[in-house]
UniProtKB/TrEMBL annotation:
Organism encoding this protein: Streptomyces olivoverticillatus
Domain of life: Bacteria
Listed name of the protein: Aspartyl-tRNA(Asn)/glutamyl-tRNA(Gln) amidotransferase subunit A
Stretches the record annotates as Disordered: 423-452
Biased composition (Basic and acidic residues): 423-436
EC number of this enzyme: 6.3.5.6, 6.3.5.7
Matches recorded under InterPro entries: Amidase, Amidase_dom, AS_sf
Pfam families, A to Z: Amidase (PF01425)
């Protein structure tokens, strides 16, 4: 992984990465800003001294919600504070840099880490290197795409509702969502403070775990790697997977193959029910919306038109989540986490697909709006989860296995994931270089299902009371989304006082 293990100097590796980015990134939209001069200077400094850091010469792409001293965090939005953490590194970045890693630039994302790319905004659209007509997944889009395309070794992302794991899945790389609080989040622009985590993406589990150990200030070599999975018990929520009906045939078949491969390594797979699933799905979504609005409500009131349509139409719904519903959602999250911790005793990992399909096309508005409980469940309770390649669909695009564990088991979980990953070389397959002569598919902006006239009227009144002046024609376009959101409140169970 590191330059210290090769005869090639850091400066040479960084220069090669920069040349590759110059050639490929115009068609991929990975970088919002490259740090060419700063990276070359850092590489030269590393080449002058001994190769001492755990990540000596490792190249980084950093999601642009995370502060770096080279450039402000724009959150890929016209609405951002250029003075926030100006000239400073987030704690996670500072630790990676101190371990010898070299930041190459800031990577693209969904605006403020929520929603889908908006082609109307003046920013690059991140493209999937396996097929540039396809979505990368969000919101750590450029960090995943850049790893897959070989533009840097490690991508730094944030995960609130799958934002590391979904792009890792769709781009065919490895992504780790750590236990909530394991990695300091200071210097990362929040979206939903009680859900957000900072974590790594890389080609392999071992590369990602090394970066995680540094960011978490864990002892060197924190993972105790395994040669096999004898003695490991893996829970499989078959009933939940079947009842959801979300998995494509290709994804279902690849998942069954993955379970067979886990058993061949010595693991025992057991059925694991998930009665907490729908309550936690609802609690997660309520929390995300309410906390996002708490952060962005003032901006939405003052600069509605400067935000992209996908972001503002989702974030605004958080202003309609009342305090009693939000507080109840937090009780449901605590209840679900306690139940899962108790029932996962004796279980080393819960296995599911990371995402139920391969990457959707950018011009397929319906597919871009797809929502799945698979990643968000573990965000709701703050448990660690790892996404790693498990094969390819019939369209030749990556599919992904997700392994989740109890809180604090991040490195033990990484050892299980690594044993599975090293049993095959599919994670080492690289996408073809993009065809620069091709015209990529246009990006559809999901419109949503129109709501009932009475919903539109109620929304218009309620939003005016929040100080938001929004044209009714736009309210029509997200009224149906509010109707679906408010239906989730019914999944929040009554709990003892």
């Amino acid at each position: 992984m590191t330059a210290a293990t090769t005869d090639v100097g850091v400066g040479t590796r960084v220069a090669e990465a920069q040349r590759r980015a110059a050639r490929l990134d115009p068609g991929l939209g990975v970088f919002l800003r490259r740090f060419d001069a700063e990276a070359a200077e850092a590489a030269a400094h590393l080449d002058e001294g001994p190769a001492e850091g755990l990540l000596h010469g490792v190249t980084l792409g950093i999601k642009d919600v995370i502060a770096t001293r080279e450039a402000p965090a724009t959150c890929q939005s016209r609405v951002h504070d250029a003075q926030w953490w100006a000239g400073r590194d987030a704690t996670a970045v500072a630790r990676l840099r101190a371990a010898g890693a070299v930041p190459l630039g800031k990577t693209t994302l969904a605006e403020h880490a929520l929603g889908r790319p908006d082609p109307a905004l003046p920013f690059p659209v991140p493209r999937n290197p396996w097929d540039t007509d396809r979505f990368t997944g969000g919101s750590s889009s450029g960090s995943a795409s850049g790893v897959a395309a070989g533009l840097f070794d490690v991508g730094l992302g944030t995960d609130t509702n799958g934002s590391i794991r979904i792009p890792a899945a769709l781009c065919g790389v490895t992504g780790i969502k750590p236990t909530h609080g394991l990695v300091p989040a200071d210097g990362a622009r929040p979206l939903a403070r009680t859900l957000d985590v900072v974590g790594p993406l890389a080609r392999t589990v071992r590369e990602a775990a090394a970066a995680l150990a540094v960011m978490a200030d864990a002892p060197a070599g924190a993972p105790a790697w395994r040669d096999d999975l004898r003695g490991v018990r893996i829970g499989v929520p078959r009933r939940a997977l079947t009842e959801s009906g979300q998995l494509t045939d290709d994804c279902g078949a690849a998942f069954e193959t993955a379970l067979t491969e886990l058993r061949a390594l010595g693991a025992e797979t057991v059925d694991f029910d998930l009665p907490e699933l729908y309550p936690l799905f609802a609690a997660q979504f309520v929390t995300l919306l309410a906390e996002a609005y708490e952060l962005h409500g003032a901006g939405l009131r003052e600069r509605w038109g400067d935000y992209g349509r996908p972001f503002r139409r989702t974030a605004v719904l958080g202003g309609l989540v009342g305090a009693p519903v939000y507080v109840h959602a937090q009780r449901v999250r605590a209840w679900g986490a306690e139940n899962l911790r108790a029932r996962m005793r004796g279980i080393d990992a819960i296995a599911t697909p990371t995402w139920p399909t391969t990457a959707p096309r950018y011009d397929d508005a319906a597919a871009l709006q797809h929502v799945s409980w698979l990643p968000g469940l573990w965000s709701a309770v703050g448990f660690p989860a790892i996404a790693l390649p498990m094969g390819f669909g019939g369209d030749g695009l990556p599919l992904s296995l997700q392994l989740a564990g109890a809180p604090g088991t991040d490195f033990a979980l990484a050892a299980v994931a690594d044993a599975y990953q090293r049993s095959d070389d599919r994670h080492l397959r690289r996408p073809p270089e993009p065809d620069h002569g091709a015209t990529p598919a246009a990006v559809a902006v999901p419109q949503g299902a129109p709501g009932k006239p009475e919903t539109v009227q109620w929304l218009a009144t309620s939003l005016r009371e929040l100080g938001l002046s929004i044209d009714e024609s736009e309210i029509v376009e997200f009224a149906g989304q509010w109707e679906l959101t408010s239906m989730l409140f019914g999944f929040l169970p009554d709990l003892p006082a």
